[in-house]
Amino acid sequence: MGKLYVVPTPVGNLEDITLRGIRLLKEVSLILAEDTRTTGILLKHFDIQNKMQSYHKFNEHKAVSHIIDRLKAGENIALVSDAGTPGISDPGFLVVRECVKEGVEVECLPGATAFVPALVSSGIPNDRFCFEGFLPQKKGRMTRLKILAEESRTIVLYESPHRVLKTLTQLAEYMGEERYVATCREISKVYEETIRGTLKELISHFLKNEPRGEFVIIVSGKDE
Q1: Is 53 exposed, middle or buried (0-12, 13-18, 19+ CB in 10 A)?
Q2: pLDDT of 212 higher than 70
Q3: Which of 4, 36, 106, 205 lies 20 to 30 angstroms, CA to CA, from 97?
Q4: For the range 171-174, what are the long-range contacts, defined as Cβ-Cβ under 8 Å and sequence gap of 24 or more?
Q5: For the residues 198-213, what does the mean pLDDT come to?
Q6: pLDDT for res 72
Q7: Which of 191, 169, 189 is nearest to 181 (CA)?
Q8: CA end-to-end distance (rounded Å), the chain
Q9: What is the DSSP letter of 109?
Q10: pLDDT by residue (tens digit) across 176-187?
Q11: Residue 224: is its pLDDT beyond 90?
């Protein structure tokens, strides 16, 4: 019986991959990649020559049974996403769940995840927090915002640049303009930037400065 290795990859700086991650990507029989072109850049940088297979949200249901068969036949397989830890707002949960069902061992390496450095550097309490990932774009969005407005823990959200202003504005509508928030973009890249302040202040900032890069939004919880 083989093993599935879940290998986090850098969210920005390529040096953020672990030594064990590099070794395993060299040793496994196959690398499951969200986008083989993106992963190809990483492999080339570390001189890793190995087979890749596309594994993303559009084909994971069809691919999973074949992957399980290969693992049962004794192959070790690595799963990576474009950036960060697979399964955290990226494909990964389905194949891990099927491995567990089928008795295939799963080992997830510690490593890069975008929300951890954003949360720690935000200056907002991080002893208790809830990770929401991306809010629903349409159905269920308003319901989710109402629930989060009453959340006492720190809230962690992911957002794309073209929706940041909309999301901050809606958060202000449901939580009030004075709720404290931090946005962190381009984590571990050259233009990494964290902006801190009230929702009102951050909305004003992004009205003047076009959001660029992928964002993590950290929202302080409601005062109990």
Answers
A1: middle
A2: yes
A3: 36
A4: 171/145, 171/199, 171/217, 171/219, 172/199, 172/200, 172/203, 173/145, 174/145, 174/146, 174/148, 174/149
A5: 97
A6: 97
A7: 169
A8: 51
A9: P
A10: 999 999 999 999
A11: no
**Which pLDDT tens digit goes with each residue over 115-155?**
999 999 999 999 999 999 999 998 999 999 999 999 999 99
Of 67, 54, 125, the closest CA to residue 94 belongs to: 67
DSSP code of residue 89: S
Are 57 and 111 in contact by the 8 Å Cβ rule? The answer is: no
Which parts of the chain fold into alpha helices (H)?
A: 19-27, 36-45, 60-72, 93-102, 115-121, 141-149, 164-175, 199-208
Cβ burial 176-201 (10 Å sphere, 16+ → b, else e): eeebbbbbbbbbbeeebebbbebbee
Cβ pair 89, 81 in contact under 8 A: no
- Work out the average pLDDT over 153-171: 97
Q: d(Cα 47, Cα 39) in Å, to the nearest integer?
A: 12
What is the distance between the alpha carbons of residues 8 and 81, in angstroms, rounded to a whole number? 7
Q: How far apart are CA 26 and CA 198, in angstroms?
A: 46
